[in-house]
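Just wondering, does anyone understand what follows?

——
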Amino acid sequence: MAKASTSGGKSRKKSGKSETAVARRASPSGGSSRSQDGMGDAFIKLLQSPLAAELVAVAATAALAALAEHGFTSSDGSRGKRAGKAVKAAGKAAAAAVGRRLGNEMDEIRKAAKASKADAKA
């Protein structure tokens, strides 16, 4: 059965003062909710982009390879410690793979920008 959640077992005492709520003010432009909607839409578009999908695939492949390598070659320590080390190695491998892929993308963008500048001058 599930227990009721408490805040560390300590009871809270209410003071005699009443609680005050802070009202949110609208921005001077009056478009705060619209800009947040725009940010949400932009984030969704980013997640749906082919680059994001490719980065997830690269990270997953690197993590899986690291887990497999660690599982086959590592025999030291207890099972829990070995699993923790394997997960840590998988995270590092995934981060390194994503970093390399982003670096390659940035290099390609720089090359394309230089070529575009050269074409515009000619």
Confidence is low (pLDDT under 50) at residues 7-13. Helices lie at 32-47, 50-73, 79-121.
